[in-house]
Amino acid sequence: MINDPYFSSLYLSSLALFSGLTILVAGGETLVSGAVKLATRLGMSSLLIGLTVVAFGTSMPEFFVCLSASMEGQPDIMLGNVIGSNIANVGLILGICALLSPFGAPFFSFNKELYLVLGASLAVIGIAWYGLFTRSFGFFFITALILFTYLSYKNGKVPSGDEDSGPLPSYWLIIPLCAGGLACLSLGSNLFIKGAVDVARFFGVSNLIIGLTLAAIGTSLPELASSISAIRRGKTDLLLGNIIGSNLFNLLMVLGGIALIQPFSLQRDLLLRDLPVMTLFSAVLLPALYFSNKIHRLYGFLLLLAYGLYMVSLV
């Protein structure tokens, strides 16, 4: 059986896929660790760190996977990864965190960012009707992201003495963590894409489904790890900021950045299910935060149930 070329091909492809996924998660965790230390040194609040620095770090696996997929001529994996990751961040990760430990979520701390995520989601739906994500759209998305990050930092920096003081992390620690994380992300994304494409072909599964499921869940693992870490530390503002910020970075940075490098087409079939589901998962956060200012266990259960039903619809 071991000498069967089909078996050997599947074994090697699966090995590349899971090795790439492991390296991606390790790289994401390393980059997030370095990014949080850098943000601490710059005097940023927990909420701002979650919305910007951690969101950026945990979105880097998506960016590298999508960039590799784009360069390999696999746009379905790229689009499926972004859309599926945004759905998984809310339905799977926020659902799990709410079941583990319900937490407060003041509406007015997150409403602007939620509106931005919904606006970016609707913009992607409009671009899907158009059919082509051009460099002009990419430039607009990246400009919006830069403006959001600048205004968030300007308005959210912690005045001296407002946070617990302690020894500041050294740049000699921060720089190797960030550089090592980026290197792992680059290597892991290449292995993951090659393995995912081969496994998909072997089982006759479409690249879009691979992107919406395996790639999306895999590249969302850094968000899950950082969110559980935030629960342990009692930093719930960092938790929700990370999820909302990651969804915003996935849309603006990943899709916008890749469009600047290489414009890509969007299937109108995405308008029938996946893009509306992505937008709906973000939209349901608004009434939950507005009416209760808390994410309850029941809400987490409903999110997980809805995510499970979406996974069933893919099959």
> Strand-and-helix sequence, N→C?
HHHEHEHHHHEHHEH
What structural class should be given to the helix and strand makeup?
A: mainly alpha
Main beta-sheet annotation: 2 strands, antiparallel
Give me the CATH superfamily: NCX, central ion-binding region
Distance between the termini: 29 Å
CATH topology group = A middle domain of Talin 1
Number of helices: 11
Radius of gyration: 19 Å
What fraction strand? under 5%
The level of helicity is over 70%
> What CATH architecture would you give?
Up-down Bundle
* Major β-sheet strand ordering: 1-4
Low-confidence stretches: 159-163
Question: Can you characterise this structure?
Answer:
- The chain has 315 residues and is an all-alpha fold.
- The protein has a single domain, classed as A middle domain of Talin 1 (Up-down Bundle).
- Helix 2 packs antiparallel against helix 5.
- The longest helix is centred in the first third of the chain and has 37 residues.
- It starts with a helix and ends with a helix.
- About 2% of the residues have low confidence.
